[in-house]
Amino acid sequence: MTAYLIKNVSVVGAAPTDLLIRDGVVAETGAGLTAPDATVVDATGLVALPGLVDLHTHLREPGREDAETVETGSRAAALGGYTAVCAMANTSPVADTAGVVEQVWRLGREAGLVDVQPIGAVTVGLAGEHLAELGAMADSAARVRIFSDDGHCVADPKLMRRALEYVKAFDGIIAQHAEEPRLTEGAQMHEGEVSTRLGLTGWPAVAEEAIIARDVLLAEHVGSRLHVCHVSTAGSVEVLRQAKARGVRVTAEVTPHHLLLTDARAETYDPVFKVNPPLRTETDIAALRAALADGVIDIIATDHAPHAVEDKECEWAYARPGMLGLETALSIAIDVFGGDWDLIAERMSRTPARIAGLDGHGVDPAPGVPANLTLVDPAARRVVEPAELASRSRNTPYARMTLPGRIVATFLRGEPTVLDGKAVK
Length: 425
Ligand SMILES: NC(=O)N[C@@H](CC(=O)O)C(=O)O
Ligand SMILES: [Zn+2]
Ligand SMILES: [Zn+2]
Known about the structure:
Blueprint: E1 4-11, E2 17-22, E3 25-30, E4 39-42, E5 47-50, E6 52-57, H1 70-79, E7 82-87, H2 98-111, E8 115-118, H3 134-139, E9 146-147, H4 157-168, E10 173-176, E11 189-190, H5 193-198, E12 202-203, H6 205-222, E13 225-228, H7 234-245, E14 250-254, H8 256-260, H9 282-294, E15 299-300, H10 309-312, H11 329-337, H12 341-356, E16 373-383, E17 402-412, E18 415-419, E19 422-423
Parallel strand pairs: 1-4, 1-5, 6-7, 7-8, 9-10, 10-13, 11-12, 13-14, 14-15
Antiparallel strand pairs: 1-2, 2-3, 5-16, 16-17, 17-18, 18-19
The structure holds N-carbamoyl-L-aspartate and zinc ion (2 copies).
């Protein structure tokens, strides 16, 4: 195993120091380190962050390997500064059995670019009718702890209650895609001024808020852990704020795109901006940013949702919802929160690792800690070029935008997955 000596790096914004990485861990830190056998990485001007952790990634394997595979998605993640991702269950077949989650987990190990932690489905086939084999997935080699029907809401309150109760036995989490389906029938975008003007059927904020309100009450009633996926409205933030104040065991995520883009993008009729939940308003963005800063929203998760060209480059009404996220998330966070490295480390690494229970991730580089970290050049700016992304899909909403920050290197247990801004394998 090669040793790496990272020179003059600012660890989470602190004064520059050196990091010696050996045998998979951070062996030593301090100014002026030497190690004759180590490969030197000049990190002058770079910031070291604990490797980013994504609680919400769609890797599309098995079933839609034309849009993404575990390997291509893992490479995109490493290039985005991630060392661990949680793979959503809406694959084909659905990850609703021990067999499928173990397959995804094994594919992640084989790719070896990030730790891939499968999420299991809550209900069989995501159909919302019968609980999936949650216990068998938890006991499998994949050791599933997070369950989600993401893409679909667990709309039946009785089923949601049973799921919350079931996972309590092993401190599991139900991650809810909060969307009251009766309120979003035929919905194409956020319900508001823009949808009225464009004549597109709206997806009202209350469809999200009503489910979150119900679910925090259910989680409180049974004392279980609830995680709310892709929170997108100011009203949801207020429901979460009240629930957290009462001590409900609820955590929540926001995506980079909901922190930056508004429903006005729909005016282009470019389906790259079609996503669930839909892009909202400036008022919502302001509330989401404030909630992320004050902790009502715990984490940024990408909801990386690759789609094949034929599913995205078509008429708005027929396009699938979802956008890429892994290779641009940190840049958006820097754009929104500037160089608040502690906040970025907290919301993109430490807290998601803790929620998912991923040992060895989300820990700041220090002696004895597993070397899962990423080096960022905060001064660099780059133009997003869809064809240059490692993802197998092209549906980034940031095409040709100039974004701040560049990932220079990523290390997974001491082995580089990215060096000089390029994937190592
Ligand atoms: N976010 C999306 O618009 N799409 C996701 C599903 C989801 O996250 O709900 C997908 O799987 O494509
Ligand atoms: Zn979702
Ligand atoms: Zn999703």
